[in-house]
Amino acid sequence: MTAIHVENLTKRFGNFTAVDAISFDIKKGEIFGLLGPNGAGKTTTISMLSTLLEPTSGKARVNGIDIQKDQDGVRKSIGIVFQDQSLDEELTAWENMDFHGRLYRIPKEIREERITDLLHLVELEDRKESLVKTFSGGMRRRLEIARGLLHEPSVLFLDEPTLGLDPQTRNHLWEYILTLNQTKGITIILTTHYMDEADRLCGRIAIIDQGKIIAMDTPDELKDRVGGDVVTVSSPDSERIAAEISAPWIFGAEQHDGQVTIRLQSAEEHITELIRLFGERGYAIASVSIHKPTLEDVFLHYTGKTIREDEAGATDRIRMRMMGRRH
Amino acid sequence: MDIVYTLWLRSVKRYVRSKSRIVGSLGMPVFFLLALGFGLNSVVQIPGGGGEDYLQFLVPGIIAMSVLFTSVFSGIQIIWDKQFGFLKETLVAPVSRLEIMLGQTLGGATTAVIQGAFILILSLFIGLKLTTITGFVIAFLFMTLIGICFAAFGIAIASKMEDMHGFQLIMNFVVFPIFGLSGALFPIESLPEWVIPLTLIDPLTYGVEGIRYGLLGTSAIHPLVCLAALGASTVVMIVVGALLFRKASI
User: Which end of chain A is more exposed for a tag (fewer CB within 10 A), N or C?
Assistant: First the structure.
């Protein structure tokens, strides 16, 4: 069964294409991740799927409901946790939940029962009478997730669920998300620019960059596609190494901020030979490390840059657009 | 209706909790009432009036002022909701924007009428003599209409604004002129002739005169005319507010 079907979905702002003809299908009960740098079009995609933004072209169905033809139908069947906080700080945790329950027209008794259960689930029951402005970032996030579940949606959107949280709280939230998915069978679509988060949570990942999906598969498959192992070399000669290094067991090499990432077959076997090659050619080497490919390597492989470099690029693009507007 | 009630309930809860705002927004009307009322009472003679003194004359104007400022402000508050992200929570719910807008308007109007009532009660202690219960009810009717009219007006403005930067501009160039032209501080007949048409297109004028009729039993404009004019303005504001809010982006 398909929970979300997306076909050539496109969003343009003026002549800037934020989302460029993306297509994908998400099965019921899946945790699906949109992974990419800031400004890649993740939030725009979520906004379109949750009916907050009209697509420029293309089609999408959520739970079989067309996002343009029946907005209310879509809204009833989804829960969403936005990237930016969307709680009323002047209300208590309970009141925020109650407000949400009333908006979704949940009858009083069911509403109260569910609020109690959900606040228990996210361990906020003893703080239910406290104003949200006294809450920490992690508590707010948990409350927002609880709120998103109140009307029992079959699809939950999480836009950068752990952005700006400390590692301990992140781990805690990941546990919640996995439990939710397993016990309630809720389909979850989340966006993130944290590689470890995508790796830990998602059954499948779509890597998105500059509005396009450039790869989509399970994390393991994606890593396998990079192939074999990865050797990362720090060197002042990194550009030369990336351009010149070659051997039958080397699949490829990419240079990025003073480092070369070399993809190769069985690194343990070939590392001595690799070091010998470096020596013969006279490269200066600062350090060498061997590891299995991570999603970071996958991103580098498909885009030719690391996600951090790309973020800087995105910021520049946005700045350019702002400058453009001012003139 | 339950959605409108939900939004209304939130506004009222927030209002009751913000003690500092309640006191703060009473400050200016009370200052006007005391400074102008007592300061000018012995100097100013209301022409052609039934002998009421200036303080009596001023009270309805200051009540209207209090309702006006509170309601516009509460309408404009949806900009805060926009900035703090809460508006998204309401807009992504399966409810119509009209319901959201109406709930916000009625919530704002309620808090505005409460603020006006504070001034009314205070005035009883400094010399306002109440004529009849009916008059009291009439005054509240007009206060309610002013509240709804200008809360909707605030929402209309907020729908067009990106952030709070324009707030000062709106206060100085829109809300103060509405107040100043309304005849809250002086009888409209005593204005220069070319200003009178301006006062007559100001919805607040009818509100002030309506309250004045209720509390003092006299008014420069017939109370039914006031009711019709203010009522019509309120309907127009709600329609405009609803249309602009429907188009507002997040």
Answer: C
- Give me the helix-helix angle, A108-121 and A93-103, nearest 10°: 130
Q: Is B187 exposed, middle or buried (0-12, 13-18, 19+ CB in 10 A)?
A: middle
Q: Which of the 8 DSSP states describes residue A104?
A: T
**pLDDT tens digit string along A134-166?**
999 889 988 998 999 899 899 999 999 888 788
**DSSP per residue over A181-231, as a string?**
HHHH--EEEEEES-HHHHHHH-SEEEEEETTEEEEEE-HHHHHHHH-SEEE
Structure tokens at A263: 């993809």
B90-121 residue pLDDT tens: 999 999 999 999 999 999 999 999 999 999 99
Q: How far apart (Å, rounded) are the C-alpha atoms in residues A181 and A31?
A: 7
The count of CB pairs under 8 A between chains A and B is 59
Phi, psi of B159 (to 5 degrees): -65, -25
DSSP letters, A235-287, are -TTHHHHHHH---TTEEEEEEETTEEEEEES-HHHHHHHHHHHHHHHT---SE
Sheet holding A57-62, edge to edge: A16-27, A2-13, A57-62, A65-66
Question: At A49, which amino acid appears?
Answer: L
- Global ipTM: 0.88
CB pair distance less than 8 Å for B84 and A85: yes
Nearest chain B Cα to A144, which residue? B89
Q: What is the pLDDT of residues B71-87, one digit of tens each?
A: 999 988 888 888 888 99
| Residue B63: DSSP 8-state | H
Q: Is A44 on the interface with B (CB under 8 A)?
A: no
**Going from the N-terminus, what domains does chain A have, and what CATH number goes with each?**
2-222 (3.40.50.300), 228-292 (3.30.70.920)
State the virtual CA torsion across B229, B22, B24, B188 in degrees, nearest 10. 20
Residues 6+ apart with CB under 8 A from B101: B152, B155, B241, B242, B245, B246
**Distance between CA atoms of residues A174 and A176, nearest Å:** 5
**Angle between helical axes of B97-125 and B223-247 (0-180°, round to 10):** 140
Are the CB atoms for A39 and A17 separated by under 8 Å?
no
Alpha-carbon distances, residue B124 vs B26, B30, B62, B133 (angstroms): 16, 13, 13, 14
Considering only CA atoms, which of A57, A68, A60, A66 is closest in space to residue A10?
Answer: A57
What angle, 0 to 180 degrees and rounded to 10, lies between the N-to-C axes of helices B54-76 and B19-41? 150
Chain A contact for B1, CB < 8 A?
no
- CB contact set of B142 (below 8 Å; sequence gap of 6+): B64, B207, B210, B211, B214, B226, B227, B230
- The verdict on a CB contact (< 8 Å) between B86 and A80 is no
DSSP string for residues in B220-232: SS-HHHHHHHHHH
**B86: which chain A residues are within 8 Å (Cβ-Cβ)?**
86-88
Q: Is B136 left (phi over 0), alpha (psi -120 to 50) or beta?
A: alpha
Q: Exposed e or buried b for every residue in B148-186, given b needs 16+ CB within 10 A?
A: bbbbbbbbbbbbebeeeeebeebeeeebeebbbbbbbbb
In angstroms, the CA A104 to CA A93 distance is 17
SS3 content of chain A, % helix, strand, coil (to 5): 45, 30, 30
